[in-house]
Structures are given as C-alpha cells and as structure tokens.
Design goal:
- The complex is a heterodimer of chains A (about 250) and B (about 250).
- With about 250 residues, chain A is α/β, with parallel strands linked by helices.
- Helices cover about 35% and strands about 20% of the residues of chain A.
- Chain A contains eight helices and eleven strands.
- In chain A, strands 7-8-9-5-10-11 form a six-stranded mixed β-sheet, with helices on both faces.
- Chain B has about 250 residues and is an all-alpha fold.
- Chain B has one domain: Orthogonal Bundle (MetI-like fold).
- Helix content of chain B is about 80%, strand content about 0%.
- The two termini of chain B are about 20 Å apart.
- The chains are: A alpha/beta (about 250), B mainly alpha (about 250).
- Chains A and B meet through strand 7 and helix 3 of A and helix 7 and helix 8 of B.
C-alpha cells in the first residue's frame, strides 16, 4: 500500500455548466484521517470528490499535491453510491477487477487468495462464484467494499457508499469500513449527519453558490463511534441546524 | 407444455386455413387446401430440398457477413470519435435508400448467382446490428467507467472488459431483428434474378400454375425462418447468462 500521506487541493475557479461552483478552492485531506463532506444535494460535494479522483475533467483542473511530493494519480480507490459490480462477472472476479483492467493476471494464486481473504473479511465467504444478481443490496455493497480494499490504495474516496441500503445494514457496513480502512486517508461524501459523526475525524458542511466550505467539526473518540453516544447526539443536533441553514443558503443562491 | 403449445398453435393455424378454404369455396389455384400443399411437399421434396439448401446458404452467409461487418463498424464508431462524426451521417443516409430498390443493381453487378443474394441479405442485416450494438456501446453505466478510470484502465481495456460485455444485450436485440429479416433479403434477391433458391422456386411454380408447390416453398421458408430465429434466440440467452428475464411469467 505504501506510506499514508495527506492531500491538498487548490484551484482558482471551478465552474460547472457555466456556473461558478468554487470561487477559490483550498481544501486538505490530512494523512490517515477520515474527512467527511456534508451538504444539500447538488451543492458540489461529489464534484469535489471527483476533482480529487481525477474524474471531473469537465469541471476544469485543480492543482492536487500530496505530502510525499509524488503525484496522486493511480493512488486512489473509488467507491460509489451504487455497487457498480459487473453483472457478468462472479463476485471474486469483480473483486479482482482492477487487476483484470490493468492487464495483470486476476487468476494468479496470490491475487485469488488475497481476494478470498478480503471476501472473508466482509463476510462473503461461500459467495465467491455467485453472480452479483444473486446477492442482496447489503451483500453487493460489501462485495464493492472488498473490491475497493483489493486495490490497496492509500487514499480512498467514497461517494455516499452506504446510502442505498437499509438502516441496520448501513450501521454494519460503516463498522466494517471503519475497521478495514482504519489507517487510510479517506474522503467520505455523505448526506447522513449520523454517518459523518460515527466515521469522521473532520466534518465539513458545504453550502451556497459559490460553495463555502465550513470549518471542520472535530468529533472526539475512536471510530466507529456508537450511534447513541451523548457527544455524538449533541453534535448531530448542531449539524442538523448547520445543514438546514446550508440548504436555505444554497436554495437562495 | 413447452412442446405441446407450439404443436397446438400449428394445428390451429392449419385448421383455420382449411376452414377458410371450405367457407370461401375459393379455387385451389388461388388458395390450395393444406392437404394438397402437403402432398405437393412430399411429392416434390427433392426439388424443394435442393432450393432450400441454396436459400439457407444465402441466409447464413448474409447473417455471418452482416453481423461481422456490423460489429466491426459499431466498435469502430464507438472507439474513434472522428469516425463517429464522419461516418454516422453516411450510415444514416445509406439507410434512407430502400434496400429492396438495390436488388436489381446488385444482380446487375454481382450476377445471378449466390453473391448478389448474400450481398442483399448482408445489407439488410448490417444496419440493425450496427445501430443496436453501437447504441449499447454508448450507454455504458457512467459509474462503471469512473470506477475503471480510478483503477488505471486503458481505453482499450475499458472497451474490452466493460463496454463490450455491457453492450451485448443491446447487440443481441439487434441480432434477433437481423435474424428475422435475413430471409427477406435472400428471397428478394432471388425474385429479381436467380436460377435457384426458394424465392426462385416460388416464381417458377407460379408461372406454371403449380400453386401447391409455391405454397410448399413458402411454407418451407417460414419454417426456416422460425427455426433460425429460435436457434439464435436460444444461443443468445445462453451467452447472456447474467441477463435475467425480467418479464414475470404471470404478467
């Protein structure tokens, strides 16, 4: 995986569909920490994540630098709202998809045993040869998590990864992700304040147009924090207030 | 029931035919009764078989060539933006010309033999395959492309591993349409000018007032089309094993 590092993103102006999204963008992901982005739908959370992932080519370019001085390209893993499993590949072939796409051998002994180990970690032992269509939504998202881990990248970018599953499955997936991605530099886009408070080291709220990124809220305690923690609940009330203000700002702009 | 149902449908259609013949009192040289067509089929089976071979060969070659050319064209269009800009209008304009109108020209250029009919069938198959496959290639789930890009996949690798498999269901739809229209191409070619094939046999027996033979040839052609369609359909369902049939059986 290599050494963990932080990321800084700077851009003079990011426009999308002719509208200024970020006037001056200056944002950091500290090394080994989970940074969460909250905000109303369409505010630009995903665009910021896509800029870092190198996927938002249509929105202009940003200057991304890493603490270790090397380029970021090729060192991030991406996990989206949908599981994005390929329906014609078995679960294990989906997990080793990255190797297949890069022209490396996905069937080698080492790759296979690593993939099996990861499927075991996410609780999918026995489903290696199943097609994704045979799996439930939660299981599919766990397979997607295993695929993300298989990439073994120091930076993980997650765009509402658990929003399509039911509440209990979501809590379990959050715990699983928190455990398996413990030491990495993570950016988590979410619309769920509880999720941000359980998993985030730093929580930013995005609002308005052009976007204003709030100062980080810094929850204390080890992730994943229990959902009933009093500190967490107090912060949740605070975040809800901040979010409804953000929603008004964004609607007014 | 799977075997029984087609047999029942078949028997019902034959009965309907017989009833129409009885009820209308139509002359046998306008609409021969089913029994007479059956006898003609048994008596002249060697002739019909000979012409069937020609037509089947034309259809299969046309299907093969049209599918290969359509597949290659769709991949070319999907991979090269320049090709897309220049070739798409030409492709669409070419489809504005009715392919049937080209039949006399094809016979003129390629002769009375097999080549002109294969060309006709190829032309008629080419467009549905190209259009369907290209459409499928353009409609890959954007999230899957994003994922592949973060995995450092090359364009070629994305095409091979994601876009082509994802486009196969669309390609299959195109191929099903192509299979259904392929016999039309071959027969139209035969009507314009030929010395063999079921289309030729139909014209030939029509000229000699052998209407029962004409119907026997038509019947054979229909049977070929049905067998071909279901063979291709079964093959495609096997290849696209991950595609569930989403139409519920009680719908």
């Amino acid at each position: 995986m290599g050494k963990i590092f932080g990321i800084h993103i700077k851009a003079p102006r990011i426009a999308f569909d002719g509208q200024t999204l970020f006037e001056t963008l200056d944002f950091s992901l500290p090394a080994g920490q989970w940074t969460c982005l909250l905000g109303p739908s369409g505010v630009g959370k995903s665009t910021l994540l896509r800029l870092i992932a190198g996927l938002a080519t249509e929105a202009g370019s940003a200057c991304i630098s890493c603490d270790d001085g090397k380029p970021l390209s090729g060192r991030t893993a991406y996990m989206g709202q949908q599981d994005l499993l390929l329906p014609w590949l078995s679960v294990i072939d989906n997990v080793t998809l990255g190797r297949r796409l890069r022209g490396e051998d996905p069937k080698g002994h080492e790759a296979q045993s690593h993939a099996k180990q990861l499927l075991d970690a996410v609780g999918l032992t026995g489903y290696e040869q199943s097609l994704p269509s045979k799996l439930s939504g939660g299981m599919r998202q766990r397979a997607a998590l295993a695929r993300t881990l298989m990439e073994n990248r120091p930076v993980v970018l997650m765009d509402e990864p658990f929003s399509a599953v039911d509440a209990i499955t979501r809590l379990r997936l959050q715990e699983l992700a928190a455990e398996l991605l413990r030491d990495r530099t993570v950016l988590l886009v979410t619309h769920d304040p509880l999720e941000a408070l359980r998993l985030g080291d730093r929580i930013h709220v995005l609002s308005g147009r052009p976007v204003v990124i709030s100062d980080a809220l810094l929850p204390t305690g080890l992730r994943p924090r229990p959902a009933g923690d009093p500190d967490l609940l107090a912060n949740q009330a605070k975040l809800f207030r901040q979010l409804s203000a953000a929603m008004e700002d964004t609607a007014a702009a | 029931m799977r075997v029984l149902r087609p047999s029942i449908i078949f028997a019902a259609l034959i009965m309907l035919w017989q009833i129409i013949v009885w009820a209308s009192g139509v002359e046998p040289f306008i609409l021969p009764p089913p029994a007479r067509v059956g006898i003609a089929w048994v008596e002249r089976w060697d002739v019909i078989l000979f012409h069937t071979q020609t037509t089947v060969l034309e259809i299969l070659l046309g299907l093969l060539l049209g599918t290969v050319m359509g597949t290659v064209s769709a991949l070319f269009l999907a991979y090269f933006a320049t090709a897309r800009r220049w070739l798409m209008p030409i492709l669409v304009i070419s489809q504005a010309i009715p392919v049937f109108a080209l039949a006399p020209i094809l016979v003129l250029w390629l002769g009375y033999g097999l080549a002109s009919k294969v060309a006709m069938a190829t032309l008629i198959i080419y467009f549905p395959v190209t259009a369907a496959f290209f459409d499928g290639l353009r409609r890959t789930e954007p999230g899957q492309l994003d994922l592949a890009r973060t995995m450092n996949a090359s364009r070629w690798s994305i095409l091979r591993n994601i876009r082509i498999p994802a486009a196969l269901p669309a390609f299959a739809s195109g191929l099903r349409v192509a299979t259904a229209v392929a016999p039309i191409g071959a027969v139209v070619g035969e009507w314009v000018g030929s010395s063999a094939g079921l289309g030729y046999l139909m014209l030939h027996s029509n000229g000699r007032m052998q209407i029962d033979v004409m119907f026997a040839a038509l019947f054979t052609l229909g049977a070929i089309a049905v067998v071909l369609y279901f063979t291709v359909d079964a093959f495609l369902s096997r290849v696209l094993f991950w595609q569930p049939d989403t139409q519920p059986s009680n719908d």
